[in-house]
Amino acid sequence: MCGIIGVIDRGRKEMDGTQIRRALAQMNERGSGEGAGYAVYGCYPEYRDCYALHVFFDNIHENKKEVDDLLEQWGRIVHEGQIPTYDQPNLRKIHAPWRYFFKPDRSLMSWSPSPEDDIVTHLVMRINTDHRGALVISSGKNMGVFKASGWPEEVADFYRIQDYRGYLWLGHNRYPTNTPGWWGGAHPFNLLGWSVVHNGEITSYGTNQRFIRSYGYHCTMFTDTEVVAYLIDLLVRKHGLPEKMAVRALAPPFWDEIDAMGERERKLNTAIRLTYGPALMNGPFAIVVANPTMMMGFTDRIKLRPLVAGECGDRLYISSEEAAIRRMEPGVERTWMPRAGEPVIGRVNG
Amino acid sequence: MGGTIRIDAAEMDYTALNRQIRSAAASGATEVVLDHVLGQRFIADGLRGTVRLIINGVAGGDLGMFMSGPTCIVHGNAEHAPGNTMNGGVIVIHGSAGDAVAHSMRGGKVLVRDDIGYRGGIHMKEYYDKTPVLMVGGNARAYLGEYMAGGLIVVFGLGGGAAVTERGIGSGIHGGEIYIRGPVEDRLLGVGARKLPVGDAERKRIAPFVQEFASHFDMDAKELLAGDFTRIGPASSRPFASKYTWE
Amino acid sequence: MTIGSTPPRYRVSIDRDQCMLCERCVEECPYGVFRRNGERMSVNSRQCTACHRCIAMCPRDAINLEEQPVDYRSHPVWTRKVREAIYNQARTGRIILAGMGNAGDYPVIFDRLVLDACQVTNPAIDPLREPMELRTYLGKKPSRLEIRNGGGDDVELVTELTPNLQLETPLMIAHMSYGAISLNAQLSLARAAAATGTFMGTGEGGLHQAIYPYQDRMIVQVASGRFGVDINYLERGAAIEIKIGQGAKPGIGGHLPGEKVCEDVSCTRMIPVGSDAISPAPHHDIYSIEDLKQLVRSLKEATEWKKPVFVKIAAVHNSAAIAAGIARSSADAVVVDGFRGGTGAAPRVFRDHVGIPIEAAIASVDEKLRQQGIRNQVSLVASGGIRESADVAKAIALGADAVYIGTAALVAMGCRVCGTCYRGLCPWGIATQREDLTARLDPDVESEHVANLIQAWTLELSELMGAAGINSIESLRGNRDRLRGYLLDEGILRVLDVKPVGA
After folding, report:
1. Is the ipTM of this complex over 0.95?
2. According to a count of CB atoms within 10 Å of the terminal CB, is the N or C end of chain A lower?
3. Does C303 contact B at CB distance below 8 Å?
4. pLDDT exceeds cutoff 90 at B247
5. pTM as predicted
């Protein structure tokens, strides 16, 4: 059981973190106080060309040098510093959150069509699989993930999330079953521009993670959500599928539905299921995924988890509960429940 | 209807080539000439009907595999296993061929003017009116007619020296017969093979095949038939029967 | 000195109070165990194979059967089995042939694996109410799709899919040739495959005319003897399977003795009546992996690339690397046959000592293919020792796409696993060509039994998946997360990539 929410302003008008903090707290019934987090896009305009790496160090003096050295092998640290935090009475600070603004050296992976992304992906996998007291929790440009173990308000106050501004926000209120108390296990999960918040449990995790492993992604967070970020990165960024088709792969129509389609549709959907069968996510889930230009929410194909969408002017909201949306935007113009497996997509204009 | 179609096979892959051959045959051509063939495998694979293919160049492996009816005339050498699991038709090779020629062939003829490699005619088998025939103008290498279960192999040895000088002739043979022009050393016979007498009846039996062979290659059938042949057949139809007992 | 006769394996006894001298047992037993002797039945236990036909048919339940009625002096090393093999070989000097699958005392890994179920954190699915998808496609899958995005809803598929077999349940009936089994048996299996939306293998025995109506459900085998193989046969099948090896006897060929080659068998195998059908150990056009590729492609070329081509290998030590080679050969599926695979006859020393269990083979093949990024190039079919629906679920969770069942399908038709197939006198009409015996097997009845079995396993598989919160077979495939090992050692757990129970 978890609560999720996301909002995008299609006109890129910025919002601070006050409202999403309230919305997430609205769903405290869905959480347990053992994990919450926020992802915000547009928060680092002054370093918009750098990859913002948010890292949890177990402690700075012991673990940081290794990461510094690794980054410098692969590019340049343009700027770095502690992520400011503010002690909260019930939140035990077990990590030191740090941020790097990093520019990879393209020439070091010149054979790749997307050398910078690939270098950063490699670094994230490398640091996170080595388990040497450092964990990269976000790695996109002009965005960041802020998460910890605690209630949504505590985590928000710990980072003073209300001081950050962005045009796209995701939030997650966690009720953990696998790795309670571990900061790395809190959502959102992120890789490059992709961030994911997830409610549910993916019964196909074993299949999904073994599938993704043969494409070089290593699941390191001991939880099923991270695999979603990797699957989407693979399908959309690497394989170039339109987002809608990527969701079709993750939550495909049933065979009897496919059988009843017209020939063109049937062929397309059959091909998707045949090719991406191991990417099919089974079990109950509602997911909101974002990248710098869009936000997308969808559920499992038999709709075992709730998901509500709402619209207000340029803004699209997706959440586990309508109440959370209304908490954020009392003037919401319309709300609806997306159909199982059908994505709701909001894109920035232009 | 009828007539010849030419296909330039230069740089063409075998699937495209076979597709063109099939469509030429389907359009009613009686002869299809393939120019510039260079190692394309599977030519005429699974092809039915009576079309005649003239193959100019080197035919790649498995020429005429599963073929059932057509004729392939190769002006050049063929690589390994022409006539593999062939059901009917004729392959004529104006040159030499590689290993496992006529492997598992059940019907039709493979006629090679020059030499063949190892395991020629391996596991050839016959069935009712189907009797596969492999004839070789030159020499054959080791394990000729291994596992042979039926049909006819003739080796003339026109290349000089003894026709077959290598071991394992008819190893495991349990049907069919092998004719080798000239003497064959006993030590070259495989397990379960034995020499059988050659009389007039045998000469008569192979004569029409020899004539056909000679006509393809402009040779003198009488000359080919002259001289002594060694005939090799199965010592028993159950070569390995004494190997086993039941639990 | 003489070795003397060994003690009888079975003792058959008749309850004289029950017996009404109907002589049904005399009629039913092809081995000659029973004889009417005046006012009583007399019994020759030495002829008995424990096929149970007499017991099943006795109207009065008057027949009793005891196994190993006479003990040897017990000894843990010098077992009855080894002693009797020595007596046999001392007498004959020959290789011992035996029927059915591996009879060695090896632990069954399937029985040391347990499946998962949902509690609280996500709901179990009731397969009767909710959709449950077992549809399985066997064949090559693209590693990625190319889709042209015309904007909005206008998306167009650019990638062309290669032919796949569509199964409605991930279990198929294994290759058992006409010749090894009777036509009635094969016909029953074919009808069952058609009725349940799955496929069956022809074995290396060609395709009898009676099976033509079900040819769309047949996977035609091309083995080293090439018996019955011609272009018509290849075109009739739904798919083609190249048999390299089989789990019951890896590395050796096959041999149908001439006496089993009757008129009809001769016809489908395309060999003369009474002639031995010898399948060489290797294919003589395959001496290397690149030759396999050539055979695969020759079959595709002959059938104009319309048929999936499977390659079956016995599970041996290096199966994973071999399968990776096969995956690159343009084959569409790899079938791995574990060392418990059944057979009509195999040298006992092979049957019991060569090869590896299917569980380990699937795990290592699947893992190797994934490591090399080519898992999508081939489907993986597991066979050899699949005895119940739980085995199917576990095989799929370890990484198989589908399984073949052989012995289980025969048991569904009455087979009692007596292991005497090689005698050709199967009293159940399965492994025999003798007309009075094959007539005992009614395809109308037995096809239903086999279809029932497939249906029942399919239902159980749905239930197991539902309990695990999975509604599509894709999500069980390779989902080793949903398996735990119970009392398996660390080495095996590593190979299986499965955690121990409690972890």
Report:
1. no
2. C
3. yes
4. no
5. 0.89
